[in-house]
Amino acid sequence: VFDTLTFKDTRETTQAKLKASKIVEMTGDETFLGRSGLNGAFHTRQKIGSLTASLYFDWTPSGILKEINLQTDPLSAEKYQSDIAPGWKAFVELLSSLYGKPVQKGPLPSMNSLADGSFSPSHLWNLESGGSAQLGTARDGSRYQLVVRFSQKKVEPVGIF
Questions:
Q1: Of 29, 64, 111, 132, which is least surrounded by CB within 10 A?
Q2: Of the candidates 21, 3, 14, which has an alpha carbon nearest to the alpha carbon of residue 37?
């Protein structure tokens, strides 16, 4: 799904794979993982566009990985066109090179179309291993970020009439 992670991984397997990754690195001291968990503890080694991204996870009740969110650092509205837009283009190119042609694609969502607390996907890829990846933008108050959501559930494209 992402790097060597699969939707069959446990928390322990996920942590071990992340520590061995050449794509992400730990942001802090390993001793805090027991208290804070894996969310936000790993970020990309290389920037995508000019943006660094961190990983966030969701688990089944039995502790199996069911979702990964790659989220860029939140930026102010002033940075939407100068940083978010080029980063979005870089993500489209990267994800297309990894997962093929998207089954749904659209333009970068405008800032004005994002309600506070929302995620607006522009692209959808079906993953060979099952599940899907969505790329879009999100808003939290006056800050914006790019999000790539990898989900074990296959998201169906929505036709617009």
A1: 29
A2: 14
User: Does residue 142 contact residue 160 with C-beta atoms inside 8 Å?
Assistant: no
Is there a contact between 68 and 57 (Cβ–Cβ < 8 Å)? yes
> Around 32, how many Cα atoms within 13 Å sit in the side-chain half-sphere?
10
Helix spans in the chain (H): 11-20, 33-36, 85-99
Q: What is the pLDDT along the chain (161 residues), one digit of tens a residue?
A: 899 999 999 999 999 999 999 999 998 666 556 555 788 899 999 999 999 999 999 999 999 999 999 999 999 999 999 999 999 999 999 999 999 999 999 999 999 999 999 999 999 999 988 899 999 999 999 999 999 999 998 887 666 55
Q: What DSSP element (H or E) covers 124? A: strand 119-126
Under the phi-then-psi rule, with left for phi > 0, alpha for psi from -120 to 50, and beta for the rest, what region is 59? beta
Closest Cα partner for 49 from 82, 27, 77?
Answer: 82
pTM of the model: 0.91
Q: Which two tokens stand for residue 87?
A: 């980063």
Planar angle of CA 1, 35, 131, nearest 5 degrees: 15
Q: In whole angstroms, how far apart are CA 109 and each of 17, 69, 112? A: 33, 18, 8
